[in-house]
Each structure stands twice: as structure tokens, then as C-alpha cells.
Amino acid sequence: MKTFIKKVGIGAFLSLSVFLFPLALAKADTQTQCEKSAEDMLKSRLGEATSTYWLSIAKANHLPSKKRIKAKKIAQKELKEEIELCEEQFEARKKLCNMLGEDLYHPVINPNNFVDNIDNPYLPLVPVTIYTYEKVTAEGTETVTVEVMDEKKVILGVNCTVVRDIVTLDGELIEDTLDWFAQDTEGNVWYFGELSKNYEEGELVSISGSWEAGVNGAKPGIVMQANPQIGKTYRLEFLLGEAEDAAKIKSISESATVPYGTFSNLLKTEDFTPLEPDHIEHKYYAPGVGFILEIEPESGERLELVDLQQS
Q1: How many CB atoms lie within 10 A of CB 291?
Q2: Model-level pTM?
Q3: Per-residue pLDDT tens for 37-63?
Q4: Would you kindly state where each structural domain of the chain is located, as residue ranges?
């Protein structure tokens, strides 16, 4: 698809799109359900992109000549960028399918296989524990306060621990999220969803990124394994187009220093998502403490544990 679009150009692509969507990506019967899903998502995203383009063109037709020409050029530029992103996401989804070696992702959740407490050594979530993190960015100092609440939310019949995550930038609220976790009898910590409220200048602007297992096709993922193995890749969450984070175990013998202290024997993961193909994060977890550090390799920004309080 990518090579075809480059060859024929945007104009020809738009003219032929009605035929391309059902035909251009047909493959052999050996294709996995995961790969088929990636292709169907590409078709959907390309359809959305072309629909948005034609709507912009329709609006431009009612503008004066000079403004109309400018608006159409902007629409073409935005369409080109959106197509490129669609293609990058498609390739990233296919790559993840191969890394996971999965046909389809459909974890079976049995409430009887879960326990009430979360004591995984790399991610202990003890009620009324408060973690405070800080990160210096180009926009200012970001402070993240994570509180393990003494309350539960039932999802798919499982009693999930509620964790509140508040993010401020130079003291101004930008995000307030409720996350839901539960641990199975083997010690794996599952992620059952989140309600993420995003703010600008004190006003709620969106709940983008929110999802709940069992709703609209969303499925839980394992956020921390009971027995992490180097090289293992796994899904952290799953809602196509909204929550597709995955992680790969990179090491279990790292060392790092953050404002809260110096730690060794750290678990290091590489977190990534097909939704942002060029973005990765390295996360570090200390036994008995949990998450202590996140590094973005591209920018060098560090989210560091600065305080931990337990009641």
C-alpha cells in the first residue's frame, strides 16, 4: 500500500480509494487474526482520513478564491501526513503481531483465579501508599502523584484495586486518572482499564485514552509478570485505536539512582505502542518498591521517584 500510494500520488489514491480498501491488502489464508486486524485497522484509518479530506474540500469550496486554494493545499498536506501515520501504525501493528507470535488476543478472565491483594515484588500496590514523581520538561516541571486507594472496582467479576494518578505541570492540573489493577493467583498483575480525564487551564477537555475491559471490545493486559523473562513481549492493554501499549523485558539486573535513593537488581522494560510508532519508554522497577524511573530515550527526559509514603 505504501509503495502504491507513493507511485500514484495523493490524487490517484483518492480516486481509486473505493476500490483499494477492499482489495489492496488481500493476502494468503495463512494470515493470522492479529495481522488481519492490523490490515482492517489500516483500511478504517484510511477511510477516516479520506472522509476528513473530502469534508475539508467541501468546506473550502465555499471560500473566496485565494482562501479556497490555500485551504485545499492544507487539506492535501494533512491527508498526506495522516496516510503516512496510518502506514506507520500498520507496520508497527504487524511487527507487534510477529513479536507476540499470537493469532488473536483473547485472554479468558475467571474471577476465581484472582486474589484481593497485589504483592508482586516489582509492582506492590498496597492501599494508602502514595508515590510522588517529577520530570523536568521543556514546558516546565511535571509532578505525578500516584495513590493506591483503599477501594475496589468490580470489572469482569474481578475486584480491582483503584489507583489514582494526578499529573500537574508547574502546579496546574493536566490529568486526573483512575487505573484498575488486579493480581492473579500466579502473581501476574493485570491492567483492567482507566478513566483518564485531561485538563487545559483548569477545564476538562477530554477523556481520551480511557477504556474498561469488557466494554466496546476492550481487553485486559498484564502490566507486570509474575516471573519476568528477558526478551518476553506482552500486551499491557488492548482497545484498538485507543489503548495498544505493549512491553518487552530488557533486563532484571539494572541499577539506577533517583532522588528517593539508589537501587539495584532493577527490572527494565521497553514500553511502546503502535499508536505512536516512533515513541518508546524505558521503565525501571525496584523489588519491594515498584516503579521508580522512566526514561524517554529520544528526549532524555526522566520521570523519577522523589518520595514514597505509606500509612
Answers
A1: 20
A2: 0.88
A3: 999 999 999 999 999 999 999 999 999
A4: 2-100, 112-310
